[in-house]
Amino acid sequence: MIKKILKTGVFFLVIFALLLGASYLISQSRLHRYSNTVVNSETFSYRKIDAIFEKTNSDTIYVFLYDKDSEDCVYLDEVILKQISYEHNGILFEDIYKVIYENSYRSYIAQMIKNTYQIETFPAIVAIQKKDDTYEKLDSFEYTSDQKKNKKELNAFLERNHFFDISQKD
């Protein structure tokens, strides 16, 4: 009798685990299909910045130094930029390209990126101009812990760099 109850319990436990695993896989696939970003969805390695210049055929590009494992990067991308987009009639920032800096926890990689883009903190959005074989930072927005200041400064950065006209604001 106890053996039969244990077998039935194990059976239901296995069924429950399978259903739980299936629901997890379904929810993950749905989440990955939905993009919360309003910047260009194409990503580039921090070592391949020339590819952005080639793609845009422009002397000036805008790079979003992005680490998908950083809560600050995700918050800037999916919350602050999205709020600004809504305030400006749903504009998309297609000219801002994500530059992925993997392994940024390693101090030498982080310092190399900071030196290359002439910034102090991550995440950041940087306007860069290519001159001969070097890069020159024209302007930048660097994320801080002050949320109100972030939104105000990011708005100012986007306005300075002509991402939207003041007339687009509601």
Principal-axis shape: elongated
What is the name of the CATH superfamily of the largest domain?
Glutaredoxin
Low-confidence stretches: 166-170
Order of helices and strands: HEHEHEHEEH
Q: Oligomeric form of this entry? A: single chain
Describe this structure in words.
This protein has 170 residues and is α/β, with parallel strands linked by helices. The protein has a five-stranded mixed beta sheet with strand order 1-3-2-4-5, sandwiched between helices. β2, α3 and β3 (93-100) form a beta-alpha-beta unit. The protein folds into two domains: 1-34; 36-168, 3-Layer(aba) Sandwich (Glutaredoxin), CATH 3.40.30.10. The chain has helices at 2-33, 49-56, 71-87, 107-117, 147-160, and strands spanning 39-45, 60-66, 93-100, 124-131, 134-142. It contains five helices and five strands; from the N terminus they run αβαβαβαββα. It is elongated and about 80 Å long.
Give a quick summary of the entry.
Helices cover 48% and strands 23% of the residues. It has 5 helices and 5 strands, in the order αβαβαβαββα.
